[in-house]
């Protein structure tokens, strides 16, 4: 069984509730969405991938000597049938797994394991993908999981505020400014409205800028 892999590297988790934690990143290739602000198009279009056997991937992951792994993309759940085999093997080997996914494909039962944190996007209007969101999937997430709104402008902010007010989410809520936007505009709005969310930057981009593979 093989997975279509764009890259694998060791770095710092730059987003969400595990921000700052040293982590292995496994970036799978391919995505069926096209967000306007996508910062990983090299994993969406083109030919920058290798088809790797699950067994070889496990060997590579174990050689990096870290028990935290983030499975990202692209959209990892497009390869869900094979990904489940890898995730099961990683759980057996006591890894803590973070799955990054876009909120339109239902994660299988294995991703609800306590050793897996699902980080699911809720796409805002500036992405031009907001109609793809399946809210019943977001509402099925648990307290251990997180829902991430990437916010470009005031219109995105108001959309996100309405969604978290109207929907019954159990997962933790992250508001993250799109890369290049000023985080203070978002922090000010959140304080003004007293929203129960976390506002977080992309730490890896503060440290290294928009450089790939770190
Ligand atoms: S879902 Fe993610 S990988 Fe796919 S286009 Fe949007 S930002 Fe890029």
Describe this protein's structure.
The protein is α/β, with parallel strands linked by helices. It has a single domain (about 1-210), classed as Aldolase class I (TIM Barrel, Alpha-Beta Barrel). Helices cover about 25% and strands about 25% of the residues. The chain has helices at about 55-65, 80-90, 135-140, 155-165, 185-195, 205-210; strands at about 1-10, 20-30, 50-55, 70, 95-100, 115-120, 145-150, 170-175, 200. A nine-stranded mixed beta sheet has the order 3-1-2-4-5-6-7-8-9. Helix 3 links the parallel strand 6 and strand 7 (about 145-150). It is globular. The model has no long low-confidence stretch (mean pLDDT about 95). The structure holds iron/sulfur cluster. Iron/sulfur cluster (SF4) binds near residues 31, 38, 73 and 102.
